[in-house]
Design brief:
Blueprint lengths: L1 H18 L27 H8 L14 H7 L4 E7 L4 E8 L15 E5 L18 H7 L3 E4 L10 E2 L15 H20 L4 E6 L1 H12 L7 E7 L12 H8 L2 H11 L2 E2 L2 H8 L3 H4 L3 H16 L11 H7 L4 E2 H13 L9 H8 L16 E5 L8 H9 L6 E6 L9 H4 L3 H13 L6
Parallel strand pairs: 3-4, 3-6, 6-7, 7-10, 10-11
Antiparallel strand pairs: 1-2, 2-4, 2-5, 8-9
């Protein structure tokens, strides 16, 4: 069995090496859209080491493996309310509001500050439970006395509603990118939070595509800045011309509008979610990875292959829960739009080609998003091993911000920290979440 696992490691190494013939730490010039050479990679340690860490859970289903967000909140005794929020373009979003904490003995006096947490691509609100309950971000915020609002972007399995379109049969439902999510979803949820909490401003925490939506929403709708107390960007994703993840290859294939249209038609607008595979096959990634052999050498390396290596921060006992929920639905247009960012080294509106662009934008080229329009206090957190939001791409994004707006640009203090470690890493609370909480304390309730 060990030899088989070593073989899977070898395949992963050869695949990564095929993407780049060098391991040098040189960076591609900022004005060149080409992948940065990947950072030095070490795959998982010996099978026996990993096996020892999951021995106790062998044959046992992870307690949260197939639970949805409401069930998770109920399991850990966090009171919540559910809201169905309709956007200006008729999409219906499901949002969960954590109103208290079992760890708070006394009710807080006065108005509680609210935090809107927005997930990344291929994820949904349940991704924040990948951390054990004492360490995940929503529960830590609720324990600290904040109201926590867990967003679910349009197209996720939680937010498939629409006034007139059926997400399962109408391909027109899927004709959106994170642009629409930024200018419709984020404002709709923000306004609902302000209305329900009777506050003037909220905190915003975004991860990956959740940060893309923040950048678009606040740059396209400057009035949104007055509603944000502070924004915390985990793996800031705007300028991504140097992305080195294998996801780059898929996105580039879909970047041209004509190729997007073909793929969109074939796939009916989206990829399948883990839940859909589970319903069809009666088996999920979590079930497969409940086997020690699969966890130790296959499932963990799959995560590393896509998002960057950080074996020491991988909690192998959590893999069944993670892979039972990941991926959620992915709209094909998201991948296409990100692919255009990669090919142009720009952060811009969707490119439909010159003819359609002229009709839509009155220009043959799509307009760029102006990050100078963002005035709300903003904080960046990035990982050195992140192969989607590459560190020098984060630097480019930071350079586009208005002077004084970026209040903190923090490199996580772990040299292997990758794109999904913001929600997966064992020490994400120590390395990231506690810093967010300390920065939030600087903003007193008004």
């Amino acid at each position: 069995m060990t030899s088989i696992l070593k073989c899977t490691d070898l395949i992963a190494v050869l695949f990564l090496l095929s993407l780049s013939s060098t391991r040098a730490q040189l960076k591609t010039p900022d004005n060149v859209c080409a992948a940065n050479p990947p950072n030095p990679l070490k795959l998982s340690g010996p099978f026996s080491t990993c096996a020892a860490s999951v021995k106790k859970s062998l044959g046992q289903r992870h307690p949260d493996q197939n639970k949805l967000t409401p069930q998770i909140l109920e399991t850990y005794n966090y009171p919540y309310k559910t809201y169905n929020i309709t956007t200006k373009d008729d999409y219906i979003l499901t949002v969960y509001r954590i109103t208290g904490s079992p760890k708070l003995k006394r009710k807080s006096k006065g108005v509680k500050q609210a935090v809107y947490i927005n997930h990344g691509m291929s994820l949904a609100s349940d991704c924040w439970n990948f951390q054990p309950n004492s360490r995940n971000l929503p529960f830590k915020l609720a324990d600290a006395g904040y109201e926590v609002w867990l967003g679910n972007g349009r197209g996720t399995t939680y937010s498939l509603g629409h006034k007139t379109k059926n997400a399962n049969f109408d391909i027109g439902y899927w004709n959106f990118s994170f642009h629409e999510m930024g200018i419709y979803d984020v404002p709709a949820v923000t306004d609902k939070i302000l209305l329900e909490t009777k506050t003037k401003k909220i905190f915003y925490v975004g991860h990956s595509m959740g940060t893309t939506q923040y950048f678009i929403g606040l740059s396209e709708l400057p009035e949104m800045n007055d509603k944000i107390e502070a924004g915390f960007m985990l793996a800031p994703t705007a300028y991504i011309g140097h992305m080195s993840s294998v996801i780059r290859l898929i996105a580039l294939l879909l970047a041209p509008y004509a190729q997007y249209e073909i793929a969109n038609g074939l796939l009916m607008g989206r990829t399948q979610s883990a839940g859909q595979f589970r319903n069809k096959l009666k088996l999920s990634g979590g079930d497969v990875c409940d086997l020690t052999a699969a966890k130790c050498g296959v499932c963990d390396n799959l995560v590393f292959l896509l998002f960057g290596y950080n074996a020491k921060q991988m909690n192998n006992t959590e893999l069944p829960n993670i892979l039972a929920k990941l991926p959620n639905n992915i709209a094909i247009k998201w991948l296409s739009h990100y692919g255009q960012f990669i090919t142009t080294c720009k952060f811009q509106h969707y490119d439909y080609g010159p003819a359609l662009n002229i009709k839509k934008y009155n220009s043959a080229q799509p307009p760029e998003y102006n990050l100078q329009n963002i005035t709300a206090p903003t904080y960046f957190f990035y990982g050195e091993q992140d192969n989607l939001s590459e560190p020098n791409d984060v630097k480019i994004t930071a350079s586009k911000m208005k002077p004084g707006v970026l209040k903190g640009n923090y490199k996580v203090g772990n040299k292997y920290f990758n794109h999904v470690d913001f929600i997966l890493a064992k020490d994400a609370d120590l390395l990231v979440y506690n810093k967010i909480l300390s920065e939030m304390k600087k903003f007193k309730p008004k």
